[in-house]
Design goal:
The complex is a heterodimer of chains A (40) and B (243). Chain A is mostly helical. Chain A has one helix and no strands. Chain A is rod-shaped. By secondary structure, chain B is an all-alpha fold. Chain B has one domain. Helices cover 73% and strands 0% of the residues of chain B. Chain B is built from seven helices and no strands. Chain B is elongated, with a radius of gyration of 24 Å. Chain B starts with a helix and ends in a 16-residue tail after the last helix. Chains A and B meet through helix 1 of A and helix 1, helix 2, helix 3 and helix 7 of B.
Chain lengths: 40, 243
Amino acid sequence: MSDWGWVTFAYGVAYGSLALYALSIVLRIRTARREIGDNE
Amino acid sequence: MQSQVRIRRWPWVAIALSLAVAFTLSMISPADSVQGDLVRIMYVHVPAAWLAYTAFFVTFVGSVAYLVTKNLRWDRIAAASAEIGVYFTGLALSLGMIWAKPTWGVWWTWDARLTFTFIMFFVYLGYLALRRTTDDPIARASRSSVLGILGAIQIPLVHFSVLWWRTLHQPPSLIRPDGPAIQDSLMLAALIVGVLAFTIVYVALMVKRIELIHLEEKRLAVEQSIRRPVAGEAVTAPELGAS
C-alpha cells in the first residue's frame, strides 16, 4: 500500500470511529429520554 | 424551544468545525524528509495520545474531589472523562499501529511506551467495568474513585517511558528541554491545531456524556420507583357483601 493509502486508512479510522462514538452517545441520550418520558 | 435545540447542538457543531480546520492543515502541510506523507498520521495520533492523558488526569481530579467533598457531581465528571479517555487511548494505539506497519515493518512490538499504553487501556476498561458492578451511586463513586486515583500513576509512566527506557518509540516531539523537534512552521501548526481540535472534541463529548449520565440516573430512579412495593400492598381488602 502507498503512503497515501496508509494515511487514508488512518484518517478513516480516526474520523470514522469518532463519528460512531458520537452517534452512540446521541442514540443513548435519545433512548434514555424516551424511557423517562422526556420529550424535550 | 429553538434556542434550546441550538444550545443542545453546539457540541456537534464545535466538533465538526474544529476537525475540519485540523484536517485541512494536516493535508496542506509538507511531507517529512524522512517519513514522507506518513507524517500526516502523527497529526491525529499525537493529539489522541495527549487527550487520553488529559481525560485520565480529569478522572483523577474528579476522583480526588469526590473523596474530599462526597459530591456526586465530581464522580459524574470522572466517569464521563474515563470513558472518553478509553476511546482516545484505543484510537492512539490503533493509529500508532497503522503508522508502525509501513515505518517499522510490524504492527506491534513490546516496546516500553506501547506496553504501558496497552496496560493503561485495560486498567481504565476495568474502571468502566467496576462502575457497572453496583447500582448504588455512593458505593460506585467510592470504589471507582480509588481506581481513578491509582490509575493516574500510569500517566507519567506512559509519557516518560520513552526517556526512562531504551525504546523504539521516538521521544516527545513538542515538549522537550531543547524546544520542539519540528522545525517547519506549517508542520508544527498542523500538530498544535490537531491537539487544539481534539481538545474541543473532548470538551464537547464531555458535555454530552455528562448529560447522558444525568438522564441514566433519572431512568434508574424511575425504574426503582416502579419496582418499590406500594405501602399496604400485602394487605388484602375485605370482600364487601360476603356473608
